[in-house]
Amino acid sequence: MAARSPDRDCAVTLDLVLIGFGNVARRFVRLIEELQPCLARDHDVHTRVVGIATRRHGCAFDPDGLDALTRARSVEAGDPIGTTATSTIGFLRASLARMSASARARHVVVVETTTLDIVRGRPAIDYVSAALAGGAHVVTANKGPAAFAYRRLAQAAARAERCFLFESAVMDGVPIFSLRRAALPAATITGFEGVVNSTTNYILTSVEQGETFDDALAAMQRAGIAEADPSLDLAGWDAAAKTAALANVLLDAGLTPHDIQREEVTAAAGPRVLAARAVGRRLKLVASAERAGGAVRGRVRLMELPETDLLAQLEGQQNALVLHTDMLGDIAIVQRGSGLTHTAYGLVSDLVTVAREVGRRPMRATRRPPPPARRGRTRSRRDRR
């Protein structure tokens, strides 16, 4: 039997309220079921879904627990899962009010997986705010809250002594934010760059291999990676939202996606892709941020990279992020695969983090946002070459 972690003295049962019940959330509830023996045995974590809110299939709540797997099958069959709520945020507030005792014990978690709104990040920001105000922790796969309002929401979480976590928001649950939080004490991240959008990277590498732009995009749509309306990916908005979220958390930037300089990926990039390949270089959509003159600047741009560059070596849907630090130099994180399971796992990982915070004694507040990075010129990719 695995030894009990020394910083926990009791099992934790987390009551989950799911806001959004699309592909990611349904994979999440199935993954929780699959991993439950491991979560209970190795981490003393138990969960039960008590509330589900959907946009089209109604809402359901039971303080004693819902059969989330049955509800998932109902949604996939096009059937309702419960009654129609006046509003999702009204359902959330009412659910938290009915669970006040569990919320006071810090055992309620709102799992937010709604679609990104690139204009203002709402209503996801409102859901996070309402959850924290109602005494719940929040884990989300939505980029909006961290990309538009990280500082405000992190401060609200700290005041409420609750967690606000979003490991699935960038690179499908690969531990980027938890790496900064748990493994880089007294180190400063001074900038970053990476390939963080799977759809555009797949298109660019497919065009290199002779496929047309439209055929490559259609393949991503069939795979469910790109939406029927792929404008968020192609116009650079998805990468810009991820860049803002990373800059806000890692560099204390206070940016929104609208502050990020963007370059689009269109069929017109095809000749550039082939011309770069012909001279031993590769065209990539690179997201980056750095501190310059006391301010943080973020960009999403098409760059020609030498074949020896780590980012140039990414194929298909692969992503990577390079963190520039003062203590350890450059740290690279490469994601060779992606999908619903990866994103759902990021939510599960955040749940374990919440359980650890709850199980620690004495009770401790959620970590406050990191202090501003030490100022200084960050070497850009161009400087390093």
CATH architecture of the largest domain: 3-Layer(aba) Sandwich
On the 0 to 100 scale, the average pLDDT is 89
The major pleated sheet works out as: 6 strands, mixed
Q: State the total count of DSSP E strands.
A: 12
Strand content: 15-25%
From the N-terminal CA to the C-terminal CA, the straight-line distance is 52 Å
What structural class do helix, strand and pairing data support?
A: alpha/beta
Total domain modules: 2
CATH topological fold name of the largest domain: Rossmann fold
Strand order in the sheet with the most strands:
3-2-1-4-5-6
What is the CATH homologous superfamily assignment of the largest domain?
Answer: NAD(P)-binding Rossmann-like Domain
Tally of helical runs: 14
The oligomeric status of these chains comes to single chain
Q: State the share of residues found in helices, binned by percent.
A: 25-40%
Query: Outline, from the CA principal axes?
Result: globular
CATH class of the largest domain: Alpha Beta
- Uncertain segments are 1-9, 361-385
Radius of gyration over all CA atoms, rounded: 21 Å
Taken in chain order, the helices and strands follow as EHEEHHHEHEHEHEHHHHEHEEEEHH
